[in-house]
Amino acid sequence: MTVSRVINRSGAISRETRERVEAAIAELGYVPNTLARSLRMKATQTLALVVSDITNPFFTTLARGVQDAARAEGFNVIFCNTDESETEQAEQLVALVQKRVDGVLLVPAASSAEPVAYLKRHKIPVVVLDRRVEDCLVDSVRCDSELGAYQLTRLLLDLGHRRIAMLSGPATVSTAVDRVAGYRRALTEAGLEVVAGLIFHGAYSPIGGRQMAQAALACTRRPTAFFAANNFIAIGAYQQLREAGLRVPEDVSMATFDEMPLTTLIEPFFTVVAQPAYEMGQRAMQLLLARLTNTAVGECQEVILPFDLIVRRSTGPVPAA
Amino acid sequence: MTVSRVINRSGAISRETRERVEAAIAELGYVPNTLARSLRMKATQTLALVVSDITNPFFTTLARGVQDAARAEGFNVIFCNTDESETEQAEQLVALVQKRVDGVLLVPAASSAEPVAYLKRHKIPVVVLDRRVEDCLVDSVRCDSELGAYQLTRLLLDLGHRRIAMLSGPATVSTAVDRVAGYRRALTEAGLEVVAGLIFHGAYSPIGGRQMAQAALACTRRPTAFFAANNFIAIGAYQQLREAGLRVPEDVSMATFDEMPLTTLIEPFFTVVAQPAYEMGQRAMQLLLARLTNTAVGECQEVILPFDLIVRRSTGPVPAA
DNA sequence: CTGTTAGCGCATTCAA
DNA sequence: TTGAATGCGCTAACAG
Q: In terms of domains, do A188 and A239 share one?
């Protein structure tokens, strides 16, 4: 139809017909069908963001960054949760391929490169966010978890702590692994022995945090500091410590990765490595859009964003024995 | 093709051909195209949730409820933010119609019934969530804001407060209006005069909260209690009070609507009317799905869910003058 | 049980 | 400047 030309401003149209068409559109309440358009164009103008849990403030902030950047270019974004499960993730990716999304931002549930390969096989551009995957031929945006953990551990060491429990995430997730690595490096450099019994892996969730804190408290010599690998672990661990009658920071110190926005506003408490979630989302989306529009983008990029180490009230000196 | 029958398990197929087809599918990495399917079927198996800000924990929790319920029935959900703007909302709805979503869950940016009518005109079922709209012929799920506000105000009155500042949301939003109404009723029933100068309307955001708190503090006789209409307002107001050198609850009391999940876990502080966000999302989705599948659902339903009034540390008696 | 025909609503290509 | 034919990938309805 000529209608198509009017709607898309493609081709030349006499003013008269255009007005006639526009009038008809208004009168009939006609709304073009994106499905048909996408089918024909082989492009959906839709991108996806796959995260573990859209309930985590770190990811919601990231999501806003993603969405704002996408909106600016006229793209829609679909959000998916994997709940940190590789099977869930695989299902989600299949669904996204079925929908023929133009690109995917992926916070991988594990470090396997298979999901990335899967998308590439279907010619869907991917940007890996927040975490590493084994294979390296992907665009990616993240912070340096190893360095962050190193600095946070240094901070605790400088305060005099020697028995620092590391409450990390799933051993399959790169951030969890890297944060343990940074922790180890700091200890080793300080000439201290790394005690395997003080390193824990669990879910990136309040429950995971509780369980790990409980296990850590069961050690013969109680740790004087707790390093939580993310905000949810910190929360759970904190609750567990309180229930065990311990005060933070008087009895034990705590430090963690990731801000907890509302908490921070009300009563800034946790000493954290604050990652720039919004910017991470934005940058990742920009990278993806560049792949989609620019033909010549060259090799894959690896963007490492800086973080802030913010010292607050949850850390203090080792209490007198 | 026969392929379609294999994939959809429709019609009868010999085991041999089925296996042959399945083998080919696996080998080629074939993934069916949802766009084409939806175009043909005139159904997308996709629903939408439109909220003001997906960053607000109240809405993320609600979103999880929505999504979990949808997933259970094989539906996908698209999330949209309106940032409390009617124009944004209108744009989002057009986009959703273009995408031919099968249904919409709407947290309306204003109480105008026009957006609902628009969707109905396009034969898209709607469930209105959390807020009222003027016209009533829609399914809806929410809590009784008037009652919640009434009880919260009563609580403050019982503690002896007489000058209670009401920091509410936009006057165009039903929850903001209803919460003011509940506040007024409590005062009136207690035989107190409602001071117009103590009722404020602003954005449902930390900034809004700050501004209203500032204005309230400028009153000749300072309020002894602050009633925030939602969590974001509470945060902003709290910050403003702190900066003014006031302690909560020693100098002033605060009460609010909506939990702040992480905050609550760490250091339960605010006295709140806690709405069951997750259930609200779930119920709304169930209602929508009923409309979509069941043909005979009868009249529109209005589900009012109960809330919890939780008393915590942010409220206390009026300090001695 | 399997294949064929047709059309969902759009945009590209070519003709008028 | 406009219209007609064609096909994107799928499924419903019918034939074989």
A: yes
